[in-house]
Every structure is written in structure tokens, then in C-alpha cells.
């Protein structure tokens, strides 16, 4: 009777360990998915800002000096509660550098992805 009880306990522990491993794998996969989705959202936002800047250049003959100009004149909506925006206009005829970082993201604001 002792062997039968011992094998039940062993089976229960094995099942529990298996469930914990599945749970850990699932949580890791969800975290990875969220991170990837966040990177895609920030890349889309950067591209949207560039498109607004190009539209401004086409209509005004110069790239906008700042994001406030795009918001005021072209209706660009920025979510400053969720993102940090870096917009650097070097010259009026050179496409500005645009970086969008989701708040809480651990990516440095300079080119490393």
C-alpha cells in the first residue's frame, strides 16, 4: 500500500511541476508579445509624425520646427501620458529626427533597438 500511495504523490507533484512550467512559459510568451506590440506601436507613431512633417514640408516648403506646430496646424494628436517624444529639427530642409518611447520602456533614446 505504501508504494501505491507514494506513486500517487509522485504523480501529483509531477503534474503540479508540469502546470507551473506551462504557466511560466505562458507568462513569458505574453510578456514577449506585449513588448513586441509596444515596439510596433512606437514605430507606427514615429512614422506618423514623419508623414505629418513631410506633409508640412510639401505645403509650407520647410519641415516644422517642433511637434507643437504639427499639432496646431495639422491636427497631430500626441498621447503625452503614454509616450515620450523626441523631435530634433536640424534645418528646415532636412527631415527631422523622430523618436517615440513608451513610458516605462527600457529602451535608450538613441538608436539602439
Automatic annotation (TrEMBL):
Keyword entries, A-Z: Membrane, Transmembrane, Transmembrane helix
Domain of life: Bacteria
TM region positions: 12-33
Record's protein name: Type II secretion system protein
UniProt organism field: Anaerotalea alkaliphila
Lineage: Bacteria, Bacillati, Bacillota, Clostridia, Eubacteriales
Amino acid at each position: 500500500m505504501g508504494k501505491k500511495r507514494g506513486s500517487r504523490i509522485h504523480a501529483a507533484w509531477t503534474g503540479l511541476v508540469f502546470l507551473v512550467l506551462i504557466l511560466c512559459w505562458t507568462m513569458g510568451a505574453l510578456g514577449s508579445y506585449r513588448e513586441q506590440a509596444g515596439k510596433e506601436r512606437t514605430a507606427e507613431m514615429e512614422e506618423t509624425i514623419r508623414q505629418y512633417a513631410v506633409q508640412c514640408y510639401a505645403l509650407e516648403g520647410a519641415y516644422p520646427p517642433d511637434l507643437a506646430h504639427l499639432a496646431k496646424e495639422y491636427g497631430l494628436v500626441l498621447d503625452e501620458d503614454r509616450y515620450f517624444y523626441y523631435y530634433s529639427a536640424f534645418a528646415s530642409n532636412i527631415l527631422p529626427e523622430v523618436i517615440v518611447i513608451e513610458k516605462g520602456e527600457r529602451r535608450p533614446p538613441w538608436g539602439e533597438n
